[in-house]
Amino acid sequence: MTERIVLAYSGGLDTSVAIGWIGEATGAEVIAVAVDVGQGGESLEDIRQRALACGAVEAYVADARDEFANEYAMPTLKANALYQGHYPLVSAISRPVIVKHLVKAAREFGATTVAHGCTGKGNDQVRFEVGIQTLGPDLKCIAPVRDLALTRDKAIAFAEAKGLPIETTKKNPYSIDQNVWGRAVETGYLEDIWNAPTKDIYDYTATPEFPPAPDEVIISFLQGVPVAIDGVKVSPLQAIQELNRRAGAQGVGRIDVVEDRLVGIKSREIYEAPGAMALITAHKHLEDITIEREQARFKANVSQRWAELVYDGQWFSPLKRSLDAFIEDTQQYVSGDIRMTLHGGQAIVNGRRSETSLYDFDLATYDTGDTFDQSQAKGFIELWGMSSKVASQRDQRASGL
Ligand code: ARG
């Protein structure tokens, strides 16, 4: 029987050429797999038709937008995950959902190998292949750009020679990856890290310098998940989409960073994640009133480690699963409303309320009626400083003072 290979297919030039390129190099039949994670653009049906026209024997397409929002974006929100303190893991969280569908398609169509369009320099090859190894240990991986010398020039020549139904002239100087959680733009002019991004690279956000009138929004959460916006019930996907629109119109969520790739390279990336950043900001402020102090402090460390694991392609790892269980436990009382103003590139919280809040007005107030017994603070401070005081006395003795 002819060997079968499933290919992660975007509908663009490189993966369209990869269909025939892989076929010629390996003699295998290629099944194209297109997964919609909210990247916009063409319909799944158009992508399916192009895959078949480019020589795929079958095409598997899936609308995974709700799955992505519920099972990948929401855990990222519960973790307030920002890699290196900035990046909300836009591309990193989309790879595992695509991997799930690739493995499913491989089983459905009896494929032995999974192919993807990544280069050998980035994180995404790692995320795909570590994911595939974990979910389908018997499956092999192949990356035509990395393993079969499929360069841009060769891709254009191949598409023209074979008359593939794909545009080869459109010149985009940037490499872009986008989904409902955000958008990532790199390469070209941005590789000089002193160059400021030009206006044309943005798509999810408007220029924050000239914002429309401030937009006040109330986001309601239930156990860490947004469930209503301005009192109207929403699904996680709808919450992200609505905030992408509203926060995007105010220029919220533009990020310009040089980040540490897993493969040891520092790289410049521009992100736009208006919905994600507005949601993370609101969620964090709700946690501030609903999570106990020690749990909250520890959770910040867990979140950082979680973000590193996910960035590094360990979505399906045991440690990530254990950290998820901790994070999930912290979300039990993260329910309530956050009011925030979106304006001029910022999402600023100005009100919070929760039935499960730990904020106690009677303890906090400086007005009369205060229930906090201030006289107890004195003894507490004495004991709190004791250990350092004893050590300092020892230090002074030891230095002969
Ligand atoms: N640097 C980011 C990451 O590794 C985004 C990579 C996405 N690719 C792109 N073409 N911008 O998650």
Automatic annotation (TrEMBL):
<dbReference type="GO" id="GO:0000050">
    <property type="term" value="P:urea cycle"/>
</dbReference>
<feature type="binding site">
    <location>
        <position position="123"/>
    </location>
    <ligand>
        <name>L-aspartate</name>
    </ligand>
</feature>
<protein>
    <recommendedName>
        <fullName>Argininosuccinate synthase</fullName>
        <ecNumber>6.3.4.5</ecNumber>
    </recommendedName>
</protein>
<keyword id="KW-0963">Cytoplasm</keyword>
<feature type="binding site">
    <location>
        <position position="117"/>
    </location>
    <ligand>
        <name>ATP</name>
    </ligand>
</feature>
<feature type="binding site">
    <location>
        <position position="119"/>
    </location>
    <ligand>
        <name>L-aspartate</name>
    </ligand>
</feature>
<feature type="binding site">
    <location>
        <position position="123"/>
    </location>
    <ligand>
        <name>L-citrulline</name>
    </ligand>
</feature>
<dbReference type="InterPro" id="IPR024074">
    <property type="entry name" value="AS_cat/multimer_dom_body"/>
</dbReference>
<dbReference type="Pfam" id="PF00764">
    <property type="entry name" value="Arginosuc_synth"/>
</dbReference>
<dbReference type="InterPro" id="IPR048268">
    <property type="entry name" value="Arginosuc_syn_C"/>
</dbReference>
<dbReference type="InterPro" id="IPR014729">
    <property type="entry name" value="Rossmann-like_a/b/a_fold"/>
</dbReference>
<dbReference type="InterPro" id="IPR001518">
    <property type="entry name" value="Arginosuc_synth"/>
</dbReference>
<comment type="similarity">
    <text>Belongs to the argininosuccinate synthase family. Type 1 subfamily.</text>
</comment>
<feature type="binding site">
    <location>
        <position position="259"/>
    </location>
    <ligand>
        <name>L-citrulline</name>
    </ligand>
</feature>
<dbReference type="GO" id="GO:0004055">
    <property type="term" value="F:argininosuccinate synthase activity"/>
</dbReference>
<dbReference type="GO" id="GO:0000053">
    <property type="term" value="P:argininosuccinate metabolic process"/>
</dbReference>
<comment type="pathway">
    <text>Amino-acid biosynthesis; L-arginine biosynthesis; L-arginine from L-ornithine and carbamoyl phosphate: step 2/3.</text>
</comment>
<dbReference type="InterPro" id="IPR018223">
    <property type="entry name" value="Arginosuc_synth_CS"/>
</dbReference>
<keyword id="KW-0547">Nucleotide-binding</keyword>
<keyword id="KW-0436">Ligase</keyword>
<feature type="binding site">
    <location>
        <position position="127"/>
    </location>
    <ligand>
        <name>L-citrulline</name>
    </ligand>
</feature>
<feature type="binding site">
    <location>
        <position position="175"/>
    </location>
    <ligand>
        <name>L-citrulline</name>
    </ligand>
</feature>
<dbReference type="GO" id="GO:0006526">
    <property type="term" value="P:L-arginine biosynthetic process"/>
</dbReference>
<keyword id="KW-0028">Amino-acid biosynthesis</keyword>
<dbReference type="InterPro" id="IPR048267">
    <property type="entry name" value="Arginosuc_syn_N"/>
</dbReference>
<dbReference type="GO" id="GO:0005737">
    <property type="term" value="C:cytoplasm"/>
</dbReference>
<dbReference type="InterPro" id="IPR023434">
    <property type="entry name" value="Arginosuc_synth_type_1_subfam"/>
</dbReference>
<feature type="binding site">
    <location>
        <position position="271"/>
    </location>
    <ligand>
        <name>L-citrulline</name>
    </ligand>
</feature>
<feature type="binding site">
    <location>
        <begin position="8"/>
        <end position="16"/>
    </location>
    <ligand>
        <name>ATP</name>
    </ligand>
</feature>
<dbReference type="GO" id="GO:0005524">
    <property type="term" value="F:ATP binding"/>
</dbReference>
<feature type="domain" description="Arginosuccinate synthase C-terminal">
    <location>
        <begin position="174"/>
        <end position="390"/>
    </location>
</feature>
<feature type="binding site">
    <location>
        <position position="124"/>
    </location>
    <ligand>
        <name>L-aspartate</name>
    </ligand>
</feature>
<keyword id="KW-0067">ATP-binding</keyword>
<feature type="domain" description="Arginosuccinate synthase-like N-terminal">
    <location>
        <begin position="4"/>
        <end position="165"/>
    </location>
</feature>
<dbReference type="Pfam" id="PF20979">
    <property type="entry name" value="Arginosuc_syn_C"/>
</dbReference>
<feature type="binding site">
    <location>
        <position position="87"/>
    </location>
    <ligand>
        <name>L-citrulline</name>
    </ligand>
</feature>
<keyword id="KW-0055">Arginine biosynthesis</keyword>
<comment type="subunit">
    <text>Homotetramer.</text>
</comment>
